[in-house]
Specification:
Blueprint: H1 16-35, H2 38-46, H3 54-63, E1 68-73, E2 76-77, E3 81-82, H4 89-99, E4 103-107, H5 110-113, H6 117-125, E5 131-134, H7 140-148, E6 153-157, H8 163-175, E7 179-184, H9 187-193, E8 200-204, H10 216-221, E9 230-234, H11 240-248, E10 253-256, H12 258-261, H13 266-274
Parallel strand pairs: 1-4, 1-10, 4-5, 5-6, 6-7, 7-8, 8-9, 9-10
Antiparallel strand pairs: 2-3
Helix pairs in contact: 2-7, 4-6, 4-13, 7-8
């Protein structure tokens, strides 16, 4: 693999909310990569503990006829504000594992989600589940950083990246034996995501312009995902009925965050979704 470039090219035209987040993210990465050079963060990534197999875990859940729940750990969001306080990532990870979740997703973006790398480290150390770093990935430096902090999978948001950027991030993740979740919001993005090698195709039901969720997005796009890929319905899934609705169109894997984070008994709420089918 060729050495990743250090040019932070601006993304294609994106909705206002995402554009604002990405502008801040580019500045953040400029500062962080200046403080920790690429050579050093790559060294940390390549000497980190062996990654857990995120893709196989979800494939096994589907093969077993189970719900592949990616249970999310996040303190806040742009649409929901502060979601959970007190916020204890390690305890939440233990609760999700006890409920039968397949994987975890942990927010590490600070400005908009009050996330932190330490949240991911604490959650991963508290259980044996594979962990997705949920953040806005715009540069190769971040992929190495994700592995260095212990992430087993990264998120690639097709709306935020050109095809070349997405392919570059995926190549680096694969070189580190990490999984890649390619997230789409419409047919055009799905077509682009299918040009990547990853089997994991996330269909986000949240409209990036309005921040509203609509499960009809998954109902439209999931049936278009080829059989050799694993569709994952994201956002707006709140109860067993929603889980069954997603499964009916072919998404037996789901990513659920805010609705679980707002529950007083996270274990019971997650178990209810896992046992929905």
């Amino acid at each position: 693999m060729n050495a990743p470039h250090l040019i932070l090219s601006e993304p294609q035209t994106v909705p206002d909310t995402l554009a604002r987040i990405l502008a801040d993210k580019y500045e953040e990465v400029r500062a962080r990569s200046a403080a920790t050079p690429l050579s050093e963060i790559e060294r940390q990534a390549r000497t980190a503990d062996r990654p857990r197999d995120f893709v196989t875990a979800l494939c096994q859940a589907v093969a077993d006829g189970r719900v592949g729940l990616i249970a999310e750990i996040k303190r806040a969001s742009p649409s929901g504000g502060l979601i959970r306080d007190p916020f204890e990532p390690a305890t939440l990870a233990e609760d999700y594992a006890r409920a039968g979740a397949t994987c975890l997703s942990v927010l590490t973006d600070a400005p908009y989600f009050q996330g932190h790398a330490e949240h991911l480290k604490a959650a991963r150390a508290a259980c044996t589940l594979p962990v997705l770093r949920k953040d806005f990935m715009v540069h190769p430096w971040q992929v190495f950083e994700a592995r260095a902090m212990g992430a087993d999978c990264i998120l690639i948001i097709m709306a935020a990246l050109s095809d070349q950027q997405a392919e570059e991030l995926e190549d680096i993740a694969r070189s580190l034996d990490m999984g890649v979740l390619a997230e789409v919001h419409d047919r055009a993005e799905l077509e682009r995501a299918l040009g990547l090698q990853t089997r994991l195709i996330g269909v986000n039901n949240r409209n990036l312009k309005t921040l509203q969720t609509d499960l009809a997005t998954s109902e439209e796009l999931v049936p278009l995902v080829p059989a050799d890929r694993i569709p994952i319905a994201e956002s707006g899934i709140r109860n067993p009925s929603d889980v069954r609705r997603m499964a009916d169109v072919g998404a037996r894997c789901i990513l659920v965050g805010e609705s679980l984070m707002r529950q007083p008994d996270v274990t019971a709420a997650a178990a209810e979704l896992v046992q929905a089918l």
